[in-house]
Write a structure and sequence with these properties.
With 278 residues, the protein is an alpha/beta fold. The protein is built from seven helices and six strands, in the order αααααβββαβαββ. A six-stranded mixed sheet has the order 2-1-3-4-6-5. α6 links the parallel β3 and β4. α2 crosses α5 and α3 crosses α5.
Length: 278
């Protein structure tokens, strides 16, 4: 049986990680299979599970080695004869990481996360949420559903939902459009001043060049608190690696959220990226 967590397996299986699970020579470390998508996923897993605060750059450097060593020492993942952990991700380490990420993805309550894994979102008065015609794809109760939307926003500046349908109103986000042909009565981001937003999200919409430029323009500078960008999309729109998303900043979370109404299929799953912008 291979890896099972969404972070380490989706949207496509990473053969380097799968090999690491079953083969000693396939271990990963500084200078040993130490660059690539597989390292990026390990870094994100350590950030999620251990608050490692690593830069997710796909390079297994000193900081990643330190984080792996700390992770293994806490869990006593030691080879025979070792009294302190080494800095290598091998079979036992990747298995531990996979199990913990899998548990995180399946049991983390929305209140402590960055993205809502359920249609309910954070606790709020859902009876006040938007309905059609504003909402094109409502939940089973006929109101805006919140799966894949950001939660626990980082700042108190403007919170912008590009092409939103009221699904983030309850958290103080305002719906905007970046291109007039898709506005559907939403105001345009072109009316906003530079650096006005502490939180920006896009859900189930393509990231055009215009949209990317507007996201960069309205994002709050790191000098005054920075900006977090959340992107979630079905697999039809989603591809990896997403150089457009990676160009915005440091990825701090990437995973898949299953559709609770159809758990046996992955067609309607949502892929999520969360980025701390430069």
């Amino acid at each position: 049986m291979g890896l099972r967590s969404m972070l380490l397996t989706s949207p496509a299986t990473d053969q380097q990680l799968e090999n690491c699970l079953i083969s000693d020579p396939a271990h990963i470390g500084e200078g040993i299979n130490g660059t690539g998508e597989h390292v990026r996923r390990i870094q994100m897993a350590l950030n999620e599970i251990d608050d490692a605060d690593l830069e997710v750059d796909g390079i297994y450097g000193d900081d990643t080695g330190d984080a792996v060593e700390d992770y293994k020492n806490v869990r006593r993942i030691l080879a025979p004869g070792q009294t302190t952990a080494d800095r290598i991700v091998g079979k036992r380490t990747i298995a531990f990481l996979d199990d913990e990420v899998f548990e995180f993805e399946n049991t983390t309550p929305p209140e402590s996360g960055l993205v809502s894994p359920s249609e309910a979102g954070l606790p709020h008065s859902h009876s006040q949420c938007a309905t059609p015609p504003r909402v094109v794809n409502p939940g089973p109760d006929g109101r805006a559903q919140h799966r894949g939307t950001p939660i626990n926003p980082i700042g108190n500046a403007m919170r912008i939902n590009i092409y939103g349908e009221g699904e983030t109103d309850y958290l103080g986000f305002a719906d905007f459009a970046t291109e007039p042909q898709h506005a559907r009565s939403r105001p345009m981001t072109s009316t906003l001043v530079n650096g006005c937003a502490s939180d920006i999200c896009v859900r189930d919409a393509p990231l055009s060049a215009v949209t990317l430029n507007e996201i960069r323009r309205i994002a709050q500078s790191a000098l005054v608190g920075g900006c977090r960008f959340t992107y979630s999309s079905n697999q039809e729109l989603f591809r990896t690696p997403r150089t457009d998303i990676l160009s915005l900043g440091t990825v701090i979370q990437q995973h898949r959220i299953a559709n609770p109404r159809n758990p046996s299929s992955t067609v309607d799953d949502i892929e999520v990226w969360v980025v701390d912008m430069f």
